[in-house]
Each structure stands twice: as structure tokens, then as C-alpha cells.
Amino acid sequence: MSDLSERQVKILNVIIRTYMKTGEPVGSRTISKESDLNLSSATIRNEMSDLEEMGYIVQPHTSAGRIPSDKGYRFYVDQMMLEKEHEVSEMKDFVIEKTEKMEQVLKTIAKLLAANTNYSTVVSAPQTHHGKVKFIQLSTVDENQVLATIMLDGNIVKNKIIRTSEEINQETMLKLNILLNGSLNGLTLEEINLVTIARLKEQAGIHSEVVGSVLDAVAEAVQEDEELEIYTSGATNIFKYPELSNSESARDLISAFEEKQELRDLFTGGDGEPGTGIQVYIGNESPIQRMKDCSVVTATYELGEGIHGTVGIVGPKRMDYGMVMDNLKTLKVQLDEIFNKKEEKT
User: Fold this and answer.
1) Cα 174 vs. chain centroid, distance in angstroms?
2) Whether this model's pTM surpasses 0.70
3) Using an 8 Å Cβ cutoff, are 148 and 138 in contact?
4) Of 145, 187, 222, 285, whose CA is between 20 and 30 Å from 25?
5) CATH of domain 83-125+228-345
6) CA atoms of 55 and 80, how far apart (whole Å)
7) Which SS3 state, helix, strand or coil, does residue 61 take?
């Protein structure tokens, strides 16, 4: 940012804010009216020429107006994030135990954000990366079925029905629960190795088949939790912006919203690892090539114990970044209110 003078920063900010509102190239006369610089039109045009030479603005056609480049948007966003950093709180400190509640709330969040921003929204369900087993409870369903209740980090609960070739009495069930919890609590799936499995089966004796089925259920529960659930809303909002509504851009964006793997790349940056905090991708910075004509703002929310998900807002490069960040900032409060009400009813 050091290559810009204070005057150039003010002119660039006026160009970006005006273009975000109108979608039309911005000329020197508009800048003179919208700023407090008290400069002549000739001086403003000279500064605009310098900004264009440095790559912050571009001239889309032969008119005198200019529009922001990706570099200009990047400057604007970085500047804004510095100013708003103390206002943007991380979305964390709440725990959801039932998957169906989470799914309902995340779908609602996606719809509300799309309605509030007039952009498209993408929300990922929380994941437990390398989640640990917290608790296992076996209980009898009938003489040939056992219910395995498996609690993972973040109090995420998975229930699996296990069929058995023997009837297990309550005393044996108690012993198996003690054995499984004493051996598996606090372990990740990677840590439940062949040595651990062999030792457990040996200690279970004639009930080794049941223990083997429980271990399969644990592996299935952890793997299910690592599959990324994604909820979207407002995909058709892109048609409201002329620069995105032409047939090729619109087709690419709609296709991107339908491709789960591509959306996963949006949340992980394409490297398989989750992002943190607020991330802003402008144009070609996006990990999804089919969103190269857009800007994408993502925010990470946390449920504690290593569990987190991501909220993303997709719109034109001239999106109202301040409004988008404010919506993400207040999302934690909205989520807290929703889940507090649910907890009171349960």
C-alpha cells in the first residue's frame, strides 16, 4: 500500500464505492462531487492516470470513466479488514449435539444470508478433523441386535445398529462397555491400530465378534463425520448483476454451485486444509476457476474441540464488502440465539 499517496487512496476509494453502487465507470466529475479533496478535474484525471498505470483501475472502453481492477479491490478489502479487524468476532463457543438440528439451522442461515445480502451463499457443516472417540455405549435392542452409541469430539453422536449371533446379557454388556471405553476413549481413528484391535478382541474372548463390529461402527462414524455437507442458497441472485448474468458466466457459476468437490476447494483453499478467520478471494484469487469473475468472502465458525465449518458469500467484484463482513460478524450472535432457544426446549 506504500506506493499510493493519501490523495490517491481517497480517489481509489471513491471509484470503488461508486462503482459498487452503480456498476458504471466512474469519471473525474463524480470523484470531485463525492470526495472532499477540492481538486480540479484535471488534477483528478492525472491521479486516475497514475492509478491506472499502477494497475489499481482500468478503463473498460474509450470513455473517461474507470472501474476497479482486481488489484484495486484487493487494496480496498485489505484496508477495510485492517479497520474492521477489532469488530469481527470469531464464531465459536457453542456445541450442537444433534445433526438434524445443525442441518436445519445451517439451511436457514444460508437462506437468510442470501436474502440479506442479495448474493449467493454457501455454508459447510462442521467437521471434526482427526476427531477423537469420547464415549461408547452399548445397549440391547433385542436378542440379536445391539445399539452402539458413539460420541465424538464436540458431543457429536452417531448411532449404529450391530447384529449379533449371540444374545448378550446385561453383565456381559457392562463388561464390554468398560473394555471399549477403557481402551478407545481419547483415540483418533488413526490411533486405533492393529495392535489395539488385536488386544481388544483377545480381551473380549468369545465376544470378539461383537467388539470387531463395534470397531467397524466407530470407523464408519468417524468417516461419515469427515464427509463435507454443504448447503447453498441464492444461486440465482447472480442474475441480478449484469456482469455475471451473461450466458457463459452464469452457466459457470451455476455449475460451480452444483459441484460439491469444487465447493470443498473453496472452503479449504484447494489444499485440503481448512481456512481460518475471514478470507477474501477476488477474481482469479478464487480457488474455484469458475468463480474467477466474482468475489468470495468466507468466514470460519467454531464449535469448540477442533470442530469448525465455513460460511461463504459469493457476489460480483463490486459487492458491498462492508455489508458482507457485517453480516458475517453478526452471524455468531444469531447462531447463539437460535441454539440457546433449542437448548431451552430440550
Assistant:
1) 41
2) no
3) yes
4) 285
5) 3.30.450.40
6) 19
7) coil
DSSP letter string over 166-231? Answer: S---HHHHHHHHHHHHHHHTT-BGGGS-HHHHHHHHHHHGGGHHHHHHHHHHHHHHHHHHHS--EE
- Note the helical H segments in 227-320: 242-245, 247-258, 260-268
At 30, list the grid cell. Answer: 463524480
Higher pLDDT residue, 339 or 44? 44
What grid cell was written down for 92? 465459536
Neighbour count for residue 20 (Cβ, 10 Å): 20
For residue 346, pLDDT over 50 is answered with no
Dmax over Cα atoms in the chain, in whole Å? 92
Q: Nearest-5° angle of CA 341, CA 277, CA 232?
A: 60
DSSP state of 63: S
Q: Are 329 and 89 in contact (CB under 8 A)?
A: yes
SS3 content of the chain, % helix, strand, coil (to 5): 55, 20, 25
Rounded Cα distance, 302 and 148, in Å: 27
C-alpha of 323 from chain center: 18
Residue 155 has pLDDT above 70, yes or no: no
What value does the CA radius of gyration of the chain take, rounded to a whole number of Å? 27
Fill in the amino acid letter for 28: S
**Torsion sign (Cα): 193, 198, 200, 206:** positive
Q: What angle do CA 7, 12, 14 make, to 5 degrees?
A: 100
CATH 3.30.390.60 corresponds to the domain 133-226: yes
Helix (H) or strand (E) holding 118: none
Out of 3.40.50.1100, 1.10.10.10, 1.20.58.480, 1.10.10.410, the CATH code matching 6-68 is 1.10.10.10
Mean pLDDT of 273-291: 78
